[in-house]
Design a protein that fits this description.
171 residues; mainly alpha; 2 domains
Protein backbone atom coordinates (compact mmCIF):
# COMPACT_ATOMS: atom_id res chain seq x y z
CA UNK A 1 0.00 0.00 0.00
CA UNK A 2 1.09 3.57 -0.68
CA UNK A 3 2.91 4.83 2.47
CA UNK A 4 1.05 8.14 2.43
CA UNK A 5 -2.33 6.39 2.21
CA UNK A 6 -1.23 3.99 4.96
CA UNK A 7 -0.24 6.95 7.20
CA UNK A 8 -3.82 8.29 7.21
CA UNK A 9 -5.75 5.00 7.14
CA UNK A 10 -7.48 5.91 10.41
CA UNK A 11 -9.19 8.73 8.53
CA UNK A 12 -10.02 7.07 5.23
CA UNK A 13 -9.38 3.37 5.61
CA UNK A 14 -7.98 2.09 2.33
CA UNK A 15 -9.88 4.65 0.26
CA UNK A 16 -8.89 8.36 0.40
CA UNK A 17 -11.83 9.15 -1.90
CA UNK A 18 -14.18 8.20 0.95
CA UNK A 19 -13.59 11.69 2.38
CA UNK A 20 -15.27 13.25 -0.65
CA UNK A 21 -18.71 12.37 0.71
CA UNK A 22 -18.17 15.09 3.32
CA UNK A 23 -16.78 17.71 0.91
CA UNK A 24 -19.28 20.56 0.81
CA UNK A 25 -17.32 23.70 -0.06
CA UNK A 26 -19.55 26.08 -2.01
CA UNK A 27 -21.39 23.22 -3.70
CA UNK A 28 -23.24 25.26 -6.35
CA UNK A 29 -20.16 27.20 -7.43
CA UNK A 30 -17.99 24.07 -7.31
CA UNK A 31 -20.40 22.22 -9.60
CA UNK A 32 -20.55 25.17 -12.00
CA UNK A 33 -16.76 25.42 -12.22
CA UNK A 34 -16.21 21.69 -12.52
CA UNK A 35 -18.60 21.60 -15.47
CA UNK A 36 -16.87 24.49 -17.28
CA UNK A 37 -15.41 23.57 -20.64
CA UNK A 38 -11.86 24.83 -21.11
CA UNK A 39 -12.74 26.34 -24.50
CA UNK A 40 -15.35 28.50 -22.73
CA UNK A 41 -12.76 29.96 -20.36
CA UNK A 42 -12.82 33.76 -20.32
CA UNK A 43 -12.54 36.63 -17.88
CA UNK A 44 -15.92 35.84 -16.32
CA UNK A 45 -14.86 32.26 -15.60
CA UNK A 46 -11.61 33.57 -14.13
CA UNK A 47 -13.59 35.82 -11.79
CA UNK A 48 -15.83 32.91 -10.81
CA UNK A 49 -12.74 30.90 -9.88
CA UNK A 50 -11.29 33.73 -7.84
CA UNK A 51 -14.56 34.26 -5.98
CA UNK A 52 -14.77 30.52 -5.35
CA UNK A 53 -11.28 30.43 -3.88
CA UNK A 54 -11.93 33.49 -1.73
CA UNK A 55 -15.12 31.88 -0.44
CA UNK A 56 -17.19 34.72 -1.86
CA UNK A 57 -19.19 33.05 -4.62
CA UNK A 58 -22.53 34.85 -4.59
CA UNK A 59 -25.82 33.06 -5.02
CA UNK A 60 -28.41 35.09 -6.87
CA UNK A 61 -31.49 34.06 -8.83
CA UNK A 62 -31.88 35.07 -12.47
CA UNK A 63 -35.15 36.83 -11.62
CA UNK A 64 -33.29 39.14 -9.24
CA UNK A 65 -30.74 39.88 -11.96
CA UNK A 66 -33.65 41.08 -14.10
CA UNK A 67 -35.01 43.19 -11.24
CA UNK A 68 -31.61 44.82 -10.81
CA UNK A 69 -31.78 46.05 -14.39
CA UNK A 70 -34.84 48.15 -13.45
CA UNK A 71 -32.75 50.27 -11.07
CA UNK A 72 -31.62 52.43 -13.98
CA UNK A 73 -35.11 53.93 -14.20
CA UNK A 74 -35.09 55.21 -10.59
CA UNK A 75 -34.60 58.95 -10.60
CA UNK A 76 -32.17 60.87 -8.36
CA UNK A 77 -33.50 61.45 -4.83
CA UNK A 78 -36.03 58.64 -5.33
CA UNK A 79 -33.57 56.00 -4.09
CA UNK A 80 -36.06 54.49 -1.64
CA UNK A 81 -37.91 53.06 -4.65
CA UNK A 82 -35.06 50.54 -4.77
CA UNK A 83 -35.51 49.38 -1.17
CA UNK A 84 -37.28 46.10 -1.96
CA UNK A 85 -34.67 45.05 -4.51
CA UNK A 86 -31.88 46.18 -2.17
CA UNK A 87 -33.24 43.98 0.62
CA UNK A 88 -33.59 41.00 -1.73
CA UNK A 89 -29.98 41.33 -2.86
CA UNK A 90 -28.73 41.94 0.67
CA UNK A 91 -30.41 38.67 1.70
CA UNK A 92 -28.47 36.67 -0.92
CA UNK A 93 -25.43 34.64 0.11
CA UNK A 94 -22.25 36.62 -0.43
CA UNK A 95 -23.83 40.09 -0.36
CA UNK A 96 -23.21 42.52 2.47
CA UNK A 97 -24.05 46.19 2.66
CA UNK A 98 -20.95 47.40 0.81
CA UNK A 99 -21.25 44.83 -1.98
CA UNK A 100 -24.96 45.41 -2.48
CA UNK A 101 -24.49 49.18 -2.60
CA UNK A 102 -21.64 48.72 -5.08
CA UNK A 103 -23.93 46.90 -7.50
CA UNK A 104 -26.61 49.55 -7.10
CA UNK A 105 -24.07 52.34 -7.67
CA UNK A 106 -22.70 50.91 -10.89
CA UNK A 107 -26.20 50.28 -12.21
CA UNK A 108 -27.35 53.85 -11.47
CA UNK A 109 -24.70 56.23 -10.04
CA UNK A 110 -26.96 59.28 -10.27
CA UNK A 111 -29.29 57.70 -7.69
CA UNK A 112 -27.15 55.27 -5.68
CA UNK A 113 -23.68 55.45 -4.17
CA UNK A 114 -21.41 52.94 -2.46
CA UNK A 115 -21.46 52.80 1.31
CA UNK A 116 -18.25 51.58 2.87
CA UNK A 117 -16.34 52.29 6.06
CA UNK A 118 -14.29 55.12 4.57
CA UNK A 119 -17.11 57.04 2.88
CA UNK A 120 -19.40 56.55 5.88
CA UNK A 121 -16.76 57.80 8.32
CA UNK A 122 -16.15 60.88 6.16
CA UNK A 123 -19.85 61.68 6.13
CA UNK A 124 -20.74 60.89 9.76
CA UNK A 125 -17.38 61.14 11.60
CA UNK A 126 -18.06 57.72 13.07
CA UNK A 127 -17.59 54.12 12.01
CA UNK A 128 -20.11 52.11 10.07
CA UNK A 129 -21.81 49.38 12.04
CA UNK A 130 -24.57 47.05 11.03
CA UNK A 131 -25.71 45.60 7.75
CA UNK A 132 -29.22 46.98 7.50
CA UNK A 133 -30.79 48.47 4.43
CA UNK A 134 -32.10 51.40 6.47
CA UNK A 135 -28.50 52.37 7.24
CA UNK A 136 -27.84 52.56 3.51
CA UNK A 137 -30.91 54.59 2.62
CA UNK A 138 -30.31 57.03 5.51
CA UNK A 139 -26.74 57.37 4.20
CA UNK A 140 -28.11 58.26 0.74
CA UNK A 141 -30.47 60.80 2.32
CA UNK A 142 -27.51 62.40 4.10
CA UNK A 143 -25.44 62.41 0.90
CA UNK A 144 -28.18 64.35 -0.86
CA UNK A 145 -28.09 66.90 1.99
CA UNK A 146 -24.36 67.58 1.61
CA UNK A 147 -23.90 67.20 -2.14
CA UNK A 148 -23.92 70.14 -4.52
CA UNK A 149 -22.15 71.27 -7.69
CA UNK A 150 -18.75 71.10 -5.98
CA UNK A 151 -19.46 67.72 -4.37
CA UNK A 152 -21.51 65.95 -7.06
CA UNK A 153 -23.66 63.09 -5.87
CA UNK A 154 -22.60 60.74 -8.69
CA UNK A 155 -19.00 60.88 -7.45
CA UNK A 156 -19.58 61.36 -3.74
CA UNK A 157 -18.56 57.84 -2.70
CA UNK A 158 -15.20 58.18 -4.45
CA UNK A 159 -14.58 61.67 -3.06
CA UNK A 160 -15.49 60.68 0.50
CA UNK A 161 -13.37 57.53 0.22
CA UNK A 162 -10.35 59.65 -0.77
CA UNK A 163 -11.14 62.20 1.96
CA UNK A 164 -10.88 59.47 4.58
CA UNK A 165 -7.50 58.39 3.18
CA UNK A 166 -6.25 62.03 3.11
CA UNK A 167 -7.27 62.37 6.76
CA UNK A 168 -4.92 59.48 7.56
CA UNK A 169 -7.62 57.13 8.76
CA UNK A 170 -6.93 53.41 8.81
CA UNK A 171 -9.36 50.63 7.97
Amino acid sequence: MNPFIQKYKDFWGKNPKSLLKDYNYQPEATKLLENMKTEEFNRQWLYEMILWKLGRSPLIEDTLIQELKTLKSIKPKHHREGLEIFEKLLACKGFGLAMTSTIFRFLNPSTFQIIDRRAYRSLYSTTLSGQKSETYFAYLDKLWEVCDEDLPFAQADQILYQLDIKQGNKL
